[in-house]
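Hi L., both proteins are below.
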Amino acid sequence: GIFYGTDINPALELKKMIEEDNRIKIDELILTEVTTVMGAHTGPGIWGVSYCPVVSK
């Protein structure tokens, strides 16, 4: 997932880069806005990435 503050544009750029990179296999990519509490403590320019790897047995 990609999260962002008040400006979605950096998140959209990162999403495009990830989707165009053939080395990265993604089942689902979620964009979401951070909470107002997180934004208040970090500022409006916050953005970040989180992931959960799929483990095969």
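That was the first. Here is the second:
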Amino acid sequence: MPSPRRTEVGAGSPHLYFLDTNLIVYALGRSPQALPETQALERAARVIVQAIGAGRLQAVTSLVVLQELIYLLRRWARRGAGPQMPSPQRVVADVIALCQAVYTPTLAELTGALAGYKQKQQDFNDRLIAQAMRAQGIRQIVTADRGFTRIKGIRRLDPPALAAQLEEAS
């Protein structure tokens, strides 16, 4: 498995997208009994991942996202919940291969995320992701998490809306 790397990949590029954990989870899911909204997110996530794989979009992510994926996949496997998914090792290897960079949080980013953190009002990992994005000049995150709309300087891209744009353009 390639080692995570911190690189300057088109920082500030309008076609560089940060992938959040939930996008990857939705791309893995194929639950016919899921709610229609969930099915729409799953379909949109697969369209986006396919566009990245085809080179139509550039994507990056963070070790924070990979750690969350491992945690979720392990938890679901232990409980026997969630759709049948590949092993965490396989998912992480696929995400690393898909992304142009996997950013490692720095001490400065951790400190920045802690500044003003309110445990009951905010998700700490979201703050840490936002700090990494700012440090790399990345402004767009593809996520179903509406909490990112409240983070200054970060533009949240709704997966179904982005997938629709990609389908129109092809």
